[in-house]
Amino acid sequence: MDWTMLADPLILSELVFQGLVRGSMYALMGIGLSLIFGILGIVNFAHGEQFMIGTYVMYFVAAVLGLPFAVGILFAAVALFLAGMAIERGLIEPLRRRAGRDWLVDSFVLTIGLMVILQNLAQIVFGTRRRGITELVPGSLELAGITVTYERLVIFLTAVLIVALLFLFIKYTALGKAIRATAQHAEAAQTLGIDIGRIYTIGFGLGAALAGVAGALLISIFPAFPTVGYQPVLKSFAVVIIGGLGNIPGAIAAGYLLGVIEAYAIFFLSAGWQAVLTPLLIVLVLIIRPQGLFTAQGERP
Amino acid sequence: MALEVRNLVVGYTREVPILRGVELTARDGLVTVVIGPNGAGKSTLLRAIYGYLRPSEGDILHDGRSIRGLSPHRMLEEGIGLLLQGRSIFPAMTVEENLELGGWIIRRDRARLRRAFEEVYARFPVLRERRHDPAGALSGGQQRMLELARITMTGPRTLLLDEPSVGLMPRLVDEVYDEISKLKGEKFTILMVDQNVKKAIEIADFVYVLNLGENSHQGPVEEFRHRLEDIVREWL
Question: Measured between CB atoms, does A297 come within 8 Å of chain B?
């Protein structure tokens, strides 16, 4: 390999941008996973399947119905928000009533089961054929010497917009504060009159919606097929471990960090190396800073 | 706003009740203290009143109305606040955000919320000074003050206090009981469960002793001062 490329600003900035596009997906997925863990104490193994449903929603809205991609993203967000709330109410809430000390294991079995069912359901309904959209937004522009396709720009900016809106929602609205309070001390939130059952339902819906949006946004890279969620969900676990469990700003930072690292790894070490580097990074973080790179010791969001 | 507990039977499993027919009345505007050895069911009693546990028998009346079976998040609307045992602040949120959540059920009534803030800040000036700090950065005593302030934002008249001084340094323990005495002066109806028998008796009007999930003694505090040592000795 040619190490002089490391000094080439064009290549470096091109890779940073590639990394930011990848990172947008990782951040969206990671925030969703982190939100669900922070609020409900559930490691959602069906998170990738929520991404998968998002890709199908986008395919049908944009390719079959021929509507603009923004409508597809909106549909994916709404569909997954509703589906997430239904899953929480119908499956998780009844389990929580019965579960006691074994909540982590019980919810693990539930979300793994959900993953298998959703994958197979998708296979029965849609088959295994990949349904993709090669180009959501045509065209490109020259930016400081590097070529940026509108496609990538749109993915990146949409993700940034959604992350920013979510951040403002969590930080400043009454409901956002109630969500944070429930994540930090559910019982205390309850004594103050907050219906934590409702917060759990909304929280799961929000997390699912983020995964759905990620799927819809990335359809040109990840076409819709029943097991498309595997890779994104693995990445989002990496993001959550690196950023700190339940830490939302940490998930954002870790998502983009991982995206950029992978872009560099693919370019300089060849494709496939990112699959080695990511677990390596996880192991390093777990050894050096097990609470996550962006979380102070013992802190919760 | 008297709180009455009638023949309450509660357990985590149906076969082994923790409370076996407890009777208790927290009288209007007075401090009622429940003491008893470890495992007597004191905290279970408060948690059952507040709706965390479902009684299998008996009733709970607040101001004559049954509140049995209500969820915990409905209790403030009924005018009952609960100070949880141990630390219950939201540590990563600011002091002000913590108090704002204390006013959750009145969040749409801006004027009332503003008044509640003014009252709380007048009562606890230190909370005003530190309103922009994360609650987790407060000292242990200040955190307790914040917890007390938070449950009184909406003006409940009945307060349930679960071990208010547990885990605090001795100097801070006095501060907490001073604060509870003030609440007593303001005619809150207080039902307090406490391990710190001496301190609790000092501010109590009425005392109940629980043992193994049953009433063992009860009466006005005057009857207890001289019998206290005998009763505590029974537990050992």
Answer: no
**Range(s) of the domain holding residue A210:** 3-288
Spans of chain A below 50 pLDDT: 297-301
pTM: 0.90
Residues of chain B contacting A192 with CB distance shorter than 8 Å:
73, 76, 101-102, 104-105, 150-151
Of A177, A188, A299, the CB nearest to B84: A188
Instruction: Examine residue A299 and state whether it is found in any structural domain, yes or no.
Output: no
Start-to-end CA span in chain A (Å): 43
Spell out the domain ranges in chain B.
Answer: 3-86+157-235
* Interface test mutation site (partner B, options A101, A177, A185, A191, max chain B beta carbons within 10 A): A191
Backbone torsions φ then ψ of A22, nearest 5 degrees: -55, -45
Count how many domains chain A has: 1
Residue from the list B73, B81, B147 with its beta carbon closest to the beta carbon of A190: B73
Contact call for B81 and A191, based on CB within 8 A: yes
What DSSP character marks residue A4?
G
**Taking CB atoms and an 8 Å limit, are B101 and A194 in contact across chains?**
yes
Write out pLDDT tens, residues B35-88. Answer: 988 888 888 999 999 999 989 999 999 999 999 999 999 999 999 999 999 999
Are residues B45 and B212 in contact, defined by beta-carbon separation less than 8 angstroms?
A: no
What's the pLDDT score for residue A296?
Answer: 60
Tell me if chain B has a CB within 8 Å of the CB of A125: no
Cα separation, A80 vs A54, whole angstroms: 7
Q: For residues A232 and B16, give the distance between their C-alpha atoms in angstroms, rounded to a whole number.
A: 48
Out of A192, A299, A301, name the one closest to residue B150 (CB).
Answer: A192
Q: What is the CATH number of the domain that holds A197?
A: 1.10.3470
Name the one residue in this structure whose structure tokens are 């603009």. A68
Indicate whether A54 belongs to any domain: yes
Task: Give percent helix, percent strand, percent coil of chain A, each to the nearest 5.
Answer: 75, 5, 25
In a domain, A122, yes or no: yes
The predicted-structure confidence for B120-178, as pLDDT tens digits, reads as follows 999 999 999 999 999 999 988 899 999 999 999 999 999 999 999 888 888 888 889 99
A177 touches chain B (CB under 8 A): yes
Residues B101, A184: C-beta atoms closer than 8 Å = no
The full length of chain B comes to 236
* pLDDT score, position A2: 63
**Domain B3-86+157-235 of CATH type 3.40.50.300:** yes
